[in-house]
Amino acid sequence: MSRFVTVARLADVPDSGLLEVEIEGRPVVLARVDGQIHALDGICSHAEARLAEGSLYEECLMCPVHGGEFDARTGEAITLPAMEPIGVHEVEVEGDEIRVALRS
Asked: Partners of 9 in the beta sheet?
């Protein structure tokens, strides 16, 4: 079971925005959707692109390479060419600290 690690502060993640962090050498993207912080695998399941370089519109996280979209809350692929979901990780907020536990 993974342990929670502090990765950022709430102020580091822009409203309706993205922030890339690294946990145990693994890129993770933090997304703020409707005031909630979500943590997802930071690499697109289709194009091996860094998702933090993409964009976030409402709950849709768009890959910067081919425009495939993922639901930033669930990791599910929404539009082609993305077909495989991306991993979602546990998030807890303590005060202003964002803590994430990786799921395998």
From this structure: 97
> Is residue 1 scored above 70 in pLDDT?
no
**For 6-32, how does the pLDDT look when each residue is reduced to its tens digit (9 = 90+)?**
999 999 999 989 999 999 999 999 999
Domains present along the chain, CATH in parentheses = 5-101 (2.102.10.10)
Residues 6+ apart with CB under 8 A from 30: 7, 8, 12, 13, 18, 19, 20, 21, 37, 38, 39, 91, 98, 100
Contacts of 28 (CB under 8 A, 6+ apart): 7, 20, 21, 22, 39, 40, 41, 42, 89, 100, 102
